[in-house]
Amino acid sequence: MKYLITESQFDHIIFKYLDNQDFIKIDINDSIFFVNSEGDEHAQIRYDKDDGWCSIYWRLIEEISTFFSMHEYDSEQVIGKWVEHTLQMKVAKTRGGHVDYPPMD
């Protein structure tokens, strides 16, 4: 059986998936980090409050792409939309890669 859903409905499903990851948001200087736990070496997402750039850990992009059968570019974009929705701040641009996270001392 096939189902037709709109893009916004699909985005909403991915938003729910990301909401259920229970990321910890940590605000450090001009950035907001989304981490799985405070001791993590890498953040899953880093949002730069100064320029609106959203850096996304490549493994999170890959996880969303695989789970939802999407292209990685589309996964990156929908994660950026989720960050915008979650923080109520404009995401100017997204990029994938490593997202270093400064450890809390």
Could you describe the 3D structure shown?
The chain is of the alpha+beta class. The chain has one domain (23-97). The protein has three helices and five strands. The chain has helices at 7-19, 58-68, 72-87, and strands spanning 24-28, 31-35, 45-48, 53-57, 93-97. The protein has a five-stranded mixed beta sheet. Strand 1 and strand 2 (31-35) form a beta hairpin. Helix 1 (7-19) packs across helix 3 and helix 2 packs across helix 3 (72-87). The radius of gyration is 14 Å and the shape is globular. The mean pLDDT is 91.
Question: How far from one another are the termini?
Answer: 53 Å
**How many separate domains?**
1
Number of helices: 3
Would you tell me the overall average pLDDT?
91
Per DSSP E runs of 2 or more residues, the count of β-strands stands at 5
Portion in beta strands: 15-25%
Output the strand order for the largest sheet: 1-2-3-4-5
Give the low-pLDDT segments: none
**Could you say which overall geometry the principal axes of the C-alpha atoms support?**
globular
What kind of oligomer do you see? single chain
- Helical residue percent? 25-40%
As a whole number of angstroms, the C-alpha radius of gyration is 14 Å
H/E series, N to C? HEEEEHHE
User: How is the main sheet built?
Assistant: 5 strands, mixed
Going by helix content, strand content and strand pairing, the class is: alpha+beta
